[in-house]
Design brief:
By secondary structure, this protein is mainly alpha-helical. The protein has 7 helices and no strands. The chain has helices spanning 2-15, 25-30, 36-54, 59-78, 83-109, 117-126, 128-168.
Length: 169
């Protein structure tokens, strides 16, 4: 069930009006699910579906985007036991890695910027607004996902504690 909810959330945030890169895809990648295979499939389904709708683009650049989400999944797997404690730092690191890897790919494989140090610098400078969207999107949606999970755990513990005390009466 959680798999479908993550996919729906990720797709919805790609289709609904939003600031550039402010989506739940990174958070869906970082959020740890028990099945590691599904953990990798979730962001790829989100991206493939939305890329199919919006249009595919230069394969090497697209590959760099997908690799970044794979790295975020891997980081989510690494923090699984203390996921909520490290979700903020993982979101920040994921956004920074996404910024560096994808913008390098845009410069290297695209034809928007000259293949010079100046062109690379320009590529990174022009991409700062997209970085902000990725960073704040990751932080917001990981807070929502991890916060909701922790709140659900709290409610479950409280409910079961209430049930146990009611059974003793």
């Amino acid at each position: 069930m959680i798999y479908y909810l993550l996919i729906i959330l990720g797709i919805a945030t790609r289709f609904l009006p939003h600031p550039a890169n402010f989506t739940a895809v990174g958070a869906a990648a970082i959020y740890y699910v028990q099945d590691k295979k599904m953990a990798f499939i979730i962001p790829f389904v989100i991206m493939l579906f939305s890329d199919w709708f919006f249009g595919f683009y230069q394969p090497a650049i697209m590959f760099s985007v997908y690799i970044c989400f794979g790295l975020m999944v891997y980081s989510g797997i690494l923090i699984k036991s203390k996921k909520w404690l490290y979700s903020v730092s993982t979101s920040i690191i994921g956004a920074i890695a996404f910024f560096i890897i994808t913008n390098y790919a845009v410069w290297q494989f695209g034809n928007w910027y000259p293949h010079t140090i100046s062109g690379l610098s320009t590529c990174f400078i022009v991409a700062i607004p997209f970085f902000k969207g990725t960073l704040f999107g990751n932080l917001f949606y990981t807070s929502v996902l991890f916060g909701t999970a922790e709140f659900a755990k709290y409610l479950a513990k409280r409910y079961f504690r209430f049930q146990n005390s009611a059974n003793k009466i």
